[in-house]
Design goal:
This protein has 242 residues and is of the alpha/beta class. It is 29% helix and 20% strand. Helix 1 crosses helix 2.
């Protein structure tokens, strides 16, 4: 784990989401350039999207932001499991953003086709550094098992894949997902983790304390080569960090 990581701890998930939203707002103010941001699914990003829609809908220059996703379930965009669908409901439908600025994984396609299409979208739109695409910001969560994006402990090879994205398989449900791979994530200019909840405390403690057991957790291997990494945590998630 990157020794230069920054950790910010908040009382609860709502405070975390509000602080994160302000960070995004500040980012758009400090740069007049296009920003390519990969989003995450989950309950904490949902809170973030609600804050952005309620407090920043008319403050952030959405025309300069291009939204992507770090991973997506192989379902239709209107399916209840769709990360895009959740973002559409809680953020995109409530702000003024051009459809051309939204780059979703086409989860309704067969998984391999969806991955190939997403790779083409990324290659056609993003700059490269050392032969890998560069996102300005990738927002990540972490599961109870230490997975991030859809890189699970049983598929650690996705961390070092030579592809921009891969088809991943959920270890319990068998659901197929399209996920950015480790080399792409680690090439981002900024990586911000949003982690909340007591169930994340043990794996997060292993990662932060550089325990041997952390080596088996995909999140431990997220180390931006040239970028910034910040962990936004709530007190329950951070409760076992020494």
């Amino acid at each position: 784990m990157n020794e230069n990581k920054e950790v910010k701890i908040f009382p609860n998930a709502q405070d975390l989401a509000e602080a994160f939203a302000f960070e995004l707002f500040q980012m758009t103010r400090s740069s007049k350039q296009r920003l390519d941001i990969a989003l995450s699914g989950g309950s904490t990003p949902k809170l973030l999207f609600e804050v952005l829609a309620n407090q920043y809908a008319n403050k952030i220059p959405w025309e300069r932001i291009h939204f992507w996703w770090g991973d997506e379930r192989c379902v239709s965009p209107t399916h209840k499991d769709s990360n895009f669908g959740m973002t559409q409901e809680f953020l995109l439908s409530k702000i003024n953003i051009d459809a051309d600025n939204i780059h979703r994984v086409k989860g309704e396609l067969p998984p391999e086709e969806a991955a190939a299409d997403y790779i083409l979208q990324i290659q056609s739109n993003l700059n490269e550094r050392e032969d890998w695409p560069v996102f300005d910001l990738i927002i990540l969560g972490m599961g109870d098992d230490g997975h991030t994006a859809s890189i699970f402990p049983h598929e650690m090879e996705l961390l070092t894949s030579d592809k921009i994205c891969e088809v991943a398989t959920h270890p319990e449900s068998g659901q197929k997902r399209v996920s950015l791979t480790g080399n792409v994530i680690n090439n981002a200019n900024r990586i911000y983790f949003l982690i909340s909840g007591k169930s994340k405390a043990k794996p997060l403690s292993a990662i932060m304390n550089n325990l041997k057991s952390a080596n088996k957790l995909p999140s431990y291997h997220i180390e931006p080569k040239q970028g910034q990494i910040i962990f936004f945590l709530d007190n329950p998630a951070a409760s076992e960090i020494s």
